[in-house]
Design goal:
There is one protein chain. This protein has about 190 residues and is mainly alpha-helical. It has a domain of about 110 residues: Winged helix-like DNA-binding domain superfamily/Winged helix DNA-binding domain (Arc Repressor Mutant, subunit A). It contains 7 helices and 3 strands; from the N terminus they run H-H-H-H-H-E-H-H-E-E. It has a 3-stranded antiparallel beta sheet. A hairpin with a 2-residue loop joins strand 2 and strand 3. Helix 2 packs across helix 3. About 5% of the residues have low confidence.
C-alpha cells in the first residue's frame, strides 16, 4: 500500500509536466522571431557573450533588446558611444588640469622658497643695520600656541630642516624676539611671554 501511494503522485506529476510541455510546444511558433545576423562572426560573438554570461542566446538577445528599449523610453537616454566620447574628453581635460596643477604647485613652492630667502637675508647678514621684518606667521604662531616645540615651528612654517640658511635665519629671529622679551626659550621649544 505504501508503494502505491508513492507512485500515484509521480504519475500525476508526469501528466502535469506533459500538459505544460504540450502548451509550450503549441505556442512556441507564436512566440518565435527569426533574426538573421549580417555575419557568421557576429553570430559567434553573440553566442560567446551569451555563454560567458551563462545565458541561452534567446535570453541574451531578450535582455539586451529590453534594456535598449527601456533606455529609449527614458528621455534622458544618451547612447553609449556618446557617453564614451564624453568620458574620453573629460579624461583628456582632467590630464591637462592635473599637469597644469602640478606645474603651478612647483612654481608656488619655488616662489615661496625665494620669498623665505629674501626675508631671511637680513637675519643672516651679521653686519646688517636697520630694521628687520619678522616672519609674520612665526609671530602669529607663537602668540596662538603660547608654547611650541622647535621641530613643530619648522613643520608648521613649511621649512625644510636641511635648508641650513633659512633654518639659521629662523633661529636668529627667535633669538632676537627673545632679546626683546617677547619669547623665552625653553627645553625643546619657545614660549610667548606677552
Amino acid at each position: 500500500m505504501k508503494q502505491n501511494k508513492k507512485k500515484k503522485p509521480l504519475y500525476i506529476n508526469k501528466r502535469i509536466t506533459k500538459r505544460i510541455n504540450r502548451r509550450k510546444t503549441e505556442t512556441i511558433k507564436e512566440r518565435a522571431i527569426y533574426v538573421y545576423l549580417p555575419s557568421h562572426k557576429m553570430v559567434k560573438d553573440w553566442k560567446g557573450r551569451a555563454d560567458n554570461g551563462g545565458l541561452s542566446i534567446s535570453k541574451f538577445v531578450i535582455e539586451h533588446v529590453e534594456n535598449s528599449l527601456r533606455q529609449e523610453e527614458n528621455h534622458t537616454y544618451v547612447p553609449r558611444s556618446k557617453l564614451l566620447e564624453k568620458v574620453k574628453g573629460m579624461e583628456e581635460e582632467n590630464k591637462k588640469v592635473t599637469d597644469e596643477n602640478r606645474m603651478l604647485k612647483t612654481l608656488v613652492e619655488k616662489f615661496d622658497n625665494e620669498l623665505k630667502r629674501y626675508r631671511a637675508a637680513p637675519f643672516l647678514d651679521e653686519k646688517f643695520e636697520g630694521s628687520r621684518r619678522y616672519e609674520k606667521m612665526l609671530v602669529e604662531l607663537l602668540r596662538e600656541k603660547k608654547f611650541i616645540r622647535s621641530n613643530d615651528v619648522l613643520r608648521i612654517l613649511n621649512i625644510d630642516p636641511s635648508d641650513a640658511e633659512i633654518t639659521k635665519a629662523l633661529w636668529r629671529q627667535l633669538e632676537s624676539l627673545e632679546r626683546y622679551g617677547l619669547v623665552e626659550s625653553e627645553l625643546n621649544g619657545w614660549r610667548w611671554k606677552k
